[in-house]
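Assemble and predict.
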Amino acid sequence: MLHAELDHAVGDVKLQVRFDVAPGQCLALAGPSGAGKTTVLRLLAGTLRPDEGRVTQGEEVWVDTGEGVCWAPERRRCGYVFQDYALFPHLSAWRNVAYGLRSAPARERRAAAHALLDRFGLGSRADARPATLSGGERQRVALARALAPRPNLLLLDEPLSALDARTRAAAGRELASTLHSLAIPVVLVTHEFGEAALLGDRIGVIDQGKVIQEGSPEEVAAAPASPFVADFTGAVVLTGTARAPDGELTIVELDGGGIAASTDRGAGRVALSVYPWEITIGRLGAVGDASAQNRLAARITSITKVGNRVRLGLAAGQPLFAEVTGRASEELQLAVGREVMASWKATATRLIPL
Amino acid sequence: MRRGWFPALLGAALAVTLVFLFLPVVAIFTRTPPGQLISTLGDPEATEALRLSLETTAIAVAVIVLVGTPAAYLLATRRFPGRSVVITLVELPLVLPPAVAGIGLLAALGPDGILGGALQDAHIMLVLQTAGVVVALIFVSAPFYLGMAQTAFGSVDPSLIEASRTLGSSEAASFARVAVPVALPGLAAGLALAWGRALGEFGATLMFAGSFRGITQTVPLAIYDQFATDFPAALALSAVLVAVAAGILLAVKLVFGQGMAVRAAR
């Protein structure tokens, strides 16, 4: 079990986090750049000393500022996968992997490094220098290098962000299966909610140095604790004032005009969130999806193709966006400037008290 | 044709630069009769000077690398109050006239200098001694190595050192196993520069150590000695010095050339 309580000032951000990670579990700290994510990893690895805090890993006390304890990084045995992988440029792939195996005899180091590279499908690249490896290969060498000395904690800093979009999906699935096979605590940081949901058993959404919500990916996505979390998970966030509940629905008067209904309970100032793929688009005045309680007249401000989907920027009282299929976009002859009707169900609408 | 004038200007500037810089070197070789070159290599005054030059510069460069490498690493990787002052002090000998360097060394390490008494008590003689030549060489050429080494260490990605630490290497082991190998091309360039500067050293050596055959008379001093009496011999000795300096530069480039190519590929 990894236990961490960390207080550390980084520039204007006051980092203040507490968490536990059980062996075999992966905690994904997700948040925007500048939230202090990498600092958390450096404090755990020991390359940075916290202003105040306590870190224990199993029976070992790594940091206890009250007692003046702060172990050097080389004593903690943390595997660390750096954001740009930080492979040693002067060493071949297998020598990078063998770097942390100094205590073993030369022959065993070599064999162990080659075995690990084989496991990651890099057996044929063992003698290649990092400069000649592709992004995905570098990521796997970095992971193999971090795991080679059998660490008792694994840290990953944006493990997929240095990869191009095409390799990222496959590398992400592979990494997820590797992480699931490990029997040690894993802490990873990412600025993408999707990545956190894919790789983490639990997600801690971090902003301005604090964890503002922690839970399983499903919990965080289904019930975001704040408008920031909702926005971060990729949802549309609108603000308004809730009227007294009317039967089973809460009616919200949206800032900038329009009303929306939700099956969630709420009163007073609220933020309302809905995923863009829950929003359907129809012609103005047409009778859309009969079961959709919420309708807003909106003007299309942008049309962006994302894979086989089309992302529409919409201007209503507040800006929002929706995702529709390419076919729907063609059938409806969507174009920038057109007035359309955006509609979604009250059951897909989450209310968050402000 | 009008749009071609700027490339032509660039080309002309490079041509002028090359001719100006290279002509004296070419002249040394073309004006030296081959017979003279061979007889120079047989002349004991010349061979003694050459041996002394190689010995003293090798010792000086070894000391510079041994002490300068960790010092440069500290300057490149740590932030501390007064750091920029320290860096300026290290660079100062670069802008000192050689004569001033010689006077300074005498005032510091000469018999009546600041440390003169202490050195005398320890039975260390520098002035008019071979050891004095080494001291003068270190003084004038160390800043070249320190400057290059500091830049080289400064461009080593700090996360490489952090990676090494998390993989179980101490700070000292990370320095030896990662920082030095990664910075090696830059360190080698600094070494070549410092060695070249040491080979050509004249003023500080003359003032601090004098010009005694076999003891303190290095090749540049021997050239100056012969210049007044035997110009062809001075010319031949100059040719030898150019060849040695070029040889060292080339050797360093060949030995570390692979490292430079790897770095370029990154």
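The first helix of chain A runs from residue 37 to 45.
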